[in-house]
Every structure is written in structure tokens, then in C-alpha cells.
Amino acid sequence: MHRIFLVTGRPGVGKTTLVKKVAETLYGRYLIRGFITQEVREQGSRIGFKLMTIEKALGRDGEEDWLAHVSLFRGGPRIGKYNVNIDAIDNIAIRVLEDSLRQDTDLIVIDEIGPMELLSRKFLPTVEKVLDSDRVVLATIHIKCREDPRLRKIVDRKDKLLVELTLQNRNQMYQIVRHEVEQAIRRFRKR
Question: Is the pTM value of this prediction over 0.90?
Fold first, then answer.
């Protein structure tokens, strides 16, 4: 019986799209909180990522801020060519996750548990609190999760289902993940 659903896969395979689609399908029937990290492109080139509340990601009122950008936030931490805005992680992602634990949230969405987010010292302890709660969690996790001891602890949990998304299985995986997440919500809601 799984309560935590982790989606991993290579960059660009559709992890965020899958999680967003599942959340959109279930939104309104269940109380869903969390955040999505959306890539931003200009003239065909990726210039960064925006971190947005699930409400904002689904086209409703919500918050967003730059998580990382190729030219903004210089002088701060970097991952590859991106300057990372730790304030967005601390002020949006952390707050939304903490709020979700104080409410009767049915599903908590975390997109993503990866190198940029881990730059915030508050991020991993907050994610661990969420994972240790009694809430159903749908999260994306970096492809190298087994190589990072901090992330290996998460993927080694017994109460999780780890799904590796590929170009070949992503349409089928959406149906499976949506079904499994909804079943978990129903099971844990009755407690």
C-alpha cells in the first residue's frame, strides 16, 4: 500500500507534465497543495525555471517566482548555467509544504526534489516532514536520486512507489499514477 509516489526520469521526458496532469484531473474533488517547477523558454532556448503554487500552475490564483535563471540572481549559487533563487524555494515551496501539513490536504505535490531545491537548507527537512506525515504525496525526484545519499533515503522508503518515466511509457504511466494516487487518497481519507 503506497502513500508516496515518486516520478523520476531523464530531463524533458515529461515528469512535470505528468504530475501537473494528475493534479489537474483530481483538483476540485480533493484538496491539493504543493508546487510545480515549470521551464521557461525564450525563442526556443530554455532561460530558466519558475516555481509556482499548484493553483497558479493550474491557471488559478496563486504565486510564482523565478527558481533559476541564466542571467538573474548573479552572485548566488549556480547549477549548470542557471543562477538559483533560494528565496523562491524558502518563500513559496517551503511555506506551501508547511501550510499543507496544517490543513486537511488530501494530496501534496512536490515538483521537484532535485539539486536546485536542495540548495535551500530548509528544503530537505521540510520534505522529510511531509513524507513522514500521513498525507498522500506525488513528487518528482532527480534522475540521479540513487547516487545522492540524501535522496537515496527517500527512494529507499517502504511506503513509496518509484516510477521511472520514459518516452515509451509516459502515456501509460499517467493512467497508472493517476489511478494509484486517487486510490491512496481514498484510503487515507477514511482514516
Answer: yes
